[in-house]
Specification:
Distance between the termini: 115 Å
Radius of gyration: 36 Å
Strand content: under 5%
Order of helices and strands: HHHHHH
Largest sheet: none
Number of strands: 0
Mean pLDDT: 77
Shape: elongated
Helix content: 25-40%
Length: 177
């Protein structure tokens, strides 16, 4: 028999562990200086007026003018120095809207968007009216049915809500009734 030599170093050798070099500590931060605010108010991003592109056609300008119209707010004019009977109320805030009338318009004529127009939501009301009258016949009544369901639902929400979004008109005033 021959002697077999068993090299234990190959089997019992420890694995080599490489160590990660220690991280360098970051340099100390610069001392905090006082913040200087400008003297005048700084406009917020929401305060910026969007730049409107020039109207491409007569119709787009007309549609923009109709859908973005808001009533003027004018105070009472006092001409009491000449005649006290000449105290004129110029058109200003619209009259308070009725919850019952808006709800009934929504339930019965909701597809035409008359309830939205009554509450001052002109853009939504005109879209509903246009969709019903133009797309209704083109889609064999499917668009008109969708607008009718939408208006019916909004009418019920206006009739049933005392607080929240459906209890106010477009100017944020509470509906009466």
């Amino acid at each position: 028999m021959t002697d077999t030599y068993l090299d234990l170093e190959d089997y019992l050798e420890r694995p080599v562990v490489t160590r990660v070099p220690p991280r360098r500590t970051p340099p100390p931060a610069a001392p905090c200086t006082a913040v200087r605010y400008p003297a005048e108010p700084v406009p917020d991003l929401q305060d910026a007026v969007p730049v409107m592109a020039e109207a491409r056609s007569h119709w787009s300008a007309l549609v923009r003018r109709v859908t973005s119209w808001r009533p003027r707010r004018v105070a009472l004019t006092d001409v009491s120095s000449s005649d006290p009977a000449v105290l004129v109320r110029l058109p200003g805030r619209p009259w308070p809207r009725s919850r019952v009338l808006a709800g009934l318009l929504g339930v019965f004529l909701g597809g035409l968007g008359l309830h939205a127009l009554y509450l001052g939501h002109r853009r939504r009301g005109l879209w509903m009216l246009g969709t019903t009258l133009v797309l209704g016949p083109l889609t064999l009544g499917v668009a008109a049915l969708a607008m009718g369901v939408w208006g019916f639902t909004e009418g019920l929400l206006v009739l049933g809500s005392r607080r929240g979004r459906f209890a106010r008109d477009a100017w944020g005033r509470q509906l009466r009734g």
